[in-house]
Design goal:
The chain is mainly alpha-helical and 177 residues long. It contains six helices and three strands, in the order αααβααββα. Strand 2 and strand 3 form a beta hairpin. Helix 2 runs antiparallel to helix 3 and helix 4 packs across helix 5. One of its GO terms (molecular function) is DNA binding.
């Protein structure tokens, strides 16, 4: 309850509060859009999954490549980079030559071959002779490998939304009480 005229907010304060509220509404709207986009990427109500894996995998690979340019030789996860490179492939053409996967993962050919052998032993990838060129070998994620990578990428996508949404929710609660 106001006791004096001096307790009324100034025009400047009301304008600043209105601007903050408008920005909060804009951010809330954007969070809702991101949530809808996330649901579209990760699946429909019927449980069918859409194209989330290649898109998220490509985004993570791009981030890792930028990080490696800034910090050359300091970080390296060839197995994960190979899995991401395979997951980023178009699902309609979900296999690629071994050398291409090594190139996409930015690992030397011998390292790619060594890690592909480990991933194959773990049941995450499979290699087959290229029917068009019997001198080369194609590699693809197994069903188990694709499922595990997809689960991880979906968790990361959800975590990214939470990281953005949590502070905004706190801010909304502060201004809307």
């Amino acid at each position: 309850m106001l006791r004096e005229w001096s307790d009324l907010p100034s025009d400047k304060d009301r304008h600043a509060a209105r601007a903050l509220f408008d920005e909060l509404e804009r951010l809330t709207h954007r969070i809702n859009e991101v949530e809808r986009e996330f649901k579209q990427l990760t699946g429909t109500p019927s449980g069918k999954r859409l194209k989330a894996v290649p898109d998220v995998a490509t985004l993570i690979l791009q981030f890792r490549k930028q990080r490696n340019k800034l910090f050359p030789g300091l970080f390296g996860e060839p197995a994960w980079d190979i899995l991401l490179s395979l997951a980023a492939l178009d699902p309609a053409k979900a296999e690629a030559p071994v050398l291409s996967i090594g190139y996409a993962a930015e690992v030397p050919p011998t390292t790619a071959l060594r890690y592909l052998a480990m991933l194959e032993a773990a049941g995450l990838v499979e290699r087959t002779v290229n029917p068009d060129d019997r001198r080369s070998v194609l590699v693809r994620l197994t069903a188990e490998g694709r499922e595990k990578v997809q689960r991880m990428l979906e968790k990361w996508s959800l975590a990214a939304i939470v990281v953005v949404a949590a502070p905004l929710a706190l801010l909304a609660g502060f201004f809307l009480r």
